[in-house]
Amino acid sequence: MAYDREEPNMATTTASRRQQSAFKSGTPARVHRNPFDDVLEQIDRAAAVLHPDADALEPLRHAKRQVIVYVPVMLDDGHLRVFEGYRVVYDNSRGPGKGGIRYHPGVNLDDCKALAAWMAWKCAIVDVPFGGAKGGVACDPLKLSDGELERITRRYISEIFDLIGPTVDIPAPDVGTSPKVMAWVMDTFSMKKGYVEPGVVTGKPIALGGSGGRLEATGRGLLFVTRETLKRLHRDIVDSTIAIQGFGNVGSNAARLLHGAGARVVAVSDVSGAIYDPRGLDIPRVSAYYRETGQLRGFPGTQLLDNAALLRLDVDVLLPAAMEAQLTGENASEVRARVIVEGANGPTTPDADEILARRGVLVIPDILANAGGVVVSYFEWVQDRYGYFWKEPEVNERLEEKMVLAFDAVWSTRDRFEVDARTAAYILAVDRIMEARKLRGLYA
Ligand code: NAD
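^ Those are the sequences you sent over. The predicted structure of the assembly is below.
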C-alpha cells in the first residue's frame, strides 16, 4: 500500500512493536512507556529555555480532545467484527486540527495523543495555520479486503463526523492508509453533509481535489533543508556527497531531486541492501531499475554494501529515510557523515543524539526536515477551500519558501539559545503555540 504521510514520529510504533512481539513470544510485556511522556519531556526541554509562567505551560500538558469510537463492520465472511477507532486533537490554538489516520493493529489512544502533539509541533515550525491531531483504527489493513477497508473507513468517519471538517479537524493519510482511503473519507463526509466538501481531508487523489506535488513533497522539502544546511556550513550542494537509507516515497524522491540539484548521491538502500558508487549513482537509471525489479540489489556497476555499512559511509550528508531508530547508541559513534538530515520519523534515538552531538555531527530533526508533506497538505486545503488549483511549479515554489523560512527560524533559535537543532525546533514550536494560546486568552 502506498503511504503518503505528513506525520511525525514512529518512536511510538517501536514501542507498540516491542509490546506486540513480547506478547507474541509469550514473555510478559515490558511496562510500556507512554509516548505522551516523551511529549511532556520535550515541553520541559523547551520550557527550561523559554521560562514561561506555569499557567502558560500547563495547558500544553493536556490534549484538547480524545475520543474512542467503536467501528462495527460486516466482514466478507459474513461475520460482524467491532474495531476500535480513535481521534485526538492535541491543540487547535493556531487553527483546525491536522493529522493522519493510521490503520495499524497496534494503534491506541496514547499513540494518537503523542502523534497529535508532534503534528502540532510540525505545523507550528513550518508555520501553517493548523493545530495537531491524529486518529486511527486498530486493524491490520494487510489482512483486510478493499471492501472491508472501505466499510471500516466509512463507519469510522461516520462515528467522528461531528468532530472533523475543514475548519475543525482535517485528516490525512498515515501508516496503513492511502489516497484511496482519503477519497472514501471525503465521500462519506460529503454524503452526510449533503454537499461536496473536499477540504475535509488532504492527501486525496488529484481528481478529487488533491494537490499537484503532494506525493513528492516530503522529498522536495528534504532537498531544500539539505541545501540550506550545507549553505550554513559554507558548502555547495553541487558535488556534496549524500547517502540515503530507504528508497520508498521519501528516499527515492529525495534521491532524484538531490541528484537533479547536482549533489553526488553515492549510496542508496532498501531492504535488499545498499548500492554504492563513490563517483555518484545515476539516480534516474537506479529508479528505473528499482521500478523494474522491485529492489536495488543487483544494480550493475556498483558495490553492494549491507545496510549497516551505508550508515558508516564517509559522506557530507546522511539522509535516513526508511524507519525509526536506525541510529542508536550502538552505531552512532561510527557515523562519519558531517550532517544527518532526518527524512524518516524518529530515525535517531536519544542516546545516539547525545553521541552525535558530542562528536560534532549536526542533526537536522525530522519535525523540520520532513515537514514538506504537511506544507503541501496545507496548500491542498487552501486550493480546495478556494476552489482554484495551482500549477505544480507554483506549489513547489511556495513549498520552497515555507521550508526555507522554517529552516531559518530553527537555525536562529539554535544560535540564540545555543542549543542543538532538535531542541531549537521544540523551542520554536512550543513558543509559537504558547503565543497563540496567550493571545486567545482563556474562554470561560
Ligand atoms: P516507504 O514504505 O515508501 O519506504 C520505506 C523504504 O525503506 C523502502 O524502500 C524500504 O525498502 C526501506 N527500508 C526499510 N527498512 C530498511 C532498512 N533497514 N534499511 C534500508 N532500507 C530500509 O515509506 P516512506 O513513505 O518513504 O517513509 C519513510 C519514512 O519517512 C518513515 O519514517 C515515514 O514515517 C517518514 N515520513 C514519510 C512521509 C511521506 O510523505 N511519505 C512524510 C514524513 C515522514
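Residues 3-6, 10, 218, 245-251, 269-271, 307, 321-323, 343-345, 370, 373 surround nicotinamide-adenine-dinucleotide (CB under 6 Å). The first strand starts at residue 65 and ends at 74.

Shout if you want it in another format.
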